[in-house]
Amino acid sequence: MTAPAATTNAASPTSQPPPPLSAAAAPPLDSVSADELAAKTATKRYEGLVMVRTKAVRGKGAWYWAHLEPVLVHSTDTGLPKAVKLRCSLCDSVFSASNPSRTASEHLKRGTCPNFASSPNPISEIPPVTSQPPHNRHGGHHHHHHPPPSHHPRKRSGAGSGRPYSFPPPPLEAAPPPHHHQQLVLSGGKDDLGALALLEDSVKKLKSPKILSPPPAPALTKAQVDFALDYLTDWVFDSGGSVSISSLEHPKFRSFLNQVGLPPISKRDFAGPRLDSKYEEARLDSEVRIREAMFFQIASEGWKAEDGLVNVTVNLPNGTSLYRKAAFLTGSVSSSYAEEVLWDSIASICGNSTHRCVGIVADKFKGKALRNLEGRNPWMVNLPCQLQGIRSLIKDFNKELPIFESVTKNCFKLARFVNENSRIRKSFHKYQLQEYGHGSGLLRLPPQNTGGAINMDSKPPAFATFEDILGSAHAVQLAVLDESNKVVFIEDQAAGEVSEMVRDMGFWNELEAVHSLIKLVKDTAQEVEMERPVVGQCLPVWEELRNKVKEWCAKFRVSEGPVEKAVERRFRKNYHPAWAAAFVLDPLYLTRDTSGSTSYLPPFRCLTTEQEKDVDRLITRLVSRDEAHIALMELMKWRTTGLDPVYAQAVQMKERDPSTGKLRIVNPQSRRLVWETHLSEFKTLGKIAVRLIFLRAVSCGGFRPGNLSYARWASAAHGHAGLDRAQKLIFVAAHSKLGRRDSIGEIYGKDGNFLGLSNGEDEVPKDVMVDDASQ
Known about the structure:
The protein has 28 helices and twelve strands. By secondary structure, it is of the alpha+beta class. The protein folds into four domains: about 5-205, no CATH class; about 220-265, no CATH class; about 390-535 and about 745-775, no CATH class; about 575-700, no CATH class. Helix 10 packs antiparallel against helix 17 and helix 11 (about 400-420) crosses helix 12. The chain is extended and about 110 Å long. The termini are far apart. Mean pLDDT is about 80; it is low at about 1-30, about 120-180, about 450-460 and about 740-775.
């Protein structure tokens, strides 16, 4: 096969630039369009090859690009690019660029190139790069091309930047005699060719003083720069710590700023003047909105969190929340200290007008902080957080239900057996891959105490073990039933017990029952966390939870007594008389009178006798002694007359939420507004109602869920100045979060869906049999 170099060189265009086209000799429109289209195609192909070669020279591509260079050939008639060629940098031969790999194989590997050596030359033997361009060794045609970005810089043939490059022909005696060599073989293998090309490129750069500089950054006006940096500041602060301020000084990020025409910025600038400006702006907005409200509620969460950060927020009657401050804690906190922090927060907002704070909702303390504050300030309603109360049900079930103890013990035994026995573990992974498409990882277990016992109060809890075993139930069963593992169960008595347990469908039914009950409580807690119910919703929430637990007992044939007893005990620990009072005063729960009247009446029939007494006691406590009897008289009138049906229906009007599909109240604020406007005859009772109805029953402000990194700022702070800066960072981020009503957790959830992660809906495998009482 003949070398393609001579053939290609014979077809190369001349080096003379094309003559300018006069207006009279202009080609037809369709011809020009076709030429331009071909030029664009050739240019795009050339740029693509240059990009591939640049990456290859850096060690991220094929070896032959160290010796082949893309060449853009121009038309002698129009001066436009018409084709792309490949030039061998060793012998200046030119080839078609349609298949670089085949060109490399035929020209370099087969020995056609006379200068492709079998071993690299020493650096000392590389000839210096002179100001004269290298010569073509094959005769009298010049090659028009743009030089690659960083290799073999050439002199331009014309003054204009758009003119092609020219290579004058060398004398014939410059070409060495042709000879064939073996393929280059280096000690590191084929990958060394990229490193060798990079070495040669570095030598050429050192010998050549001319290096192509990157294009200048686009020029932006001062106003554009200020706007861009302001938006960048908002994004960094709004991230809640998930974006590190130190990353602003990362070299790659600084390169990005330079490419888009922005000046470099420092973390000192962000944590200094920019932080102060954003903090002052958020603080003024928060204080103005608090002053405009007639009263408010303090919410405090984080007293039981592990990050040592307590957040204090302000709930306003219009349904919005504002961030107030963060308290940094170390170690356990006494009830008296919590009481002091909460009262200081109230005093800093109200001054001497402490009556404006009508209540507190916070984590439930072991001491009497909330009750003490309520006792000294009788106009206040201080509530324990319902989210914490509902979550505590899982601990109650674990302590009081025998089925929890047996299932937990058996699952830990099974998980440890699978994880620690290499033969069973390999079979388990094999069947995982066969059944579910993945076959790695161990069954999750809580950490062990020093004595080797499982720590029941640690994280991750036993629920994670239940999920893993249920999620891989079929693989576990197949691994145990595998004939190749029979010897394991014969020789080991404990292994035999595990085998019998896995074969027993009663074990799987009990496991599913426990898993289902825990998930029921978790789903209720998650819904409460998202909905942030008001005080009047507490009784319905717990009643709905009771009904779900009863359905669970019926489905899995579990005795209702112990389960209902645990739920009732937790309900009483969290109950507050304000639940019952807000429930009967909230127009949302009014029902049509069945005695013939058209009015909608409050649901007193849903209360127990003791709860009715709680309503009377609470109302008389929230007003002065002179107004107590008036308030009770108005309460009796409210109980018998209720609300006009038109207004009641307007308050209770619902619409379907397009994002969740659930029915939502069209105007939640109308429940309070109807007391301030339409029910104006209830002067004393109305003042109590508007203060009770808006109170939240959960302490979370809507921004903590989802792994926010506020604690990272707090832990990194040192000294008074550092803590002050951390306070400002948290305040700005939380203020923005509460204003948008979103959270980092929602963003992570979207990322999880994008990456194909679980959405939290765990399906029970079909092979797990359930003895359903309804069947």
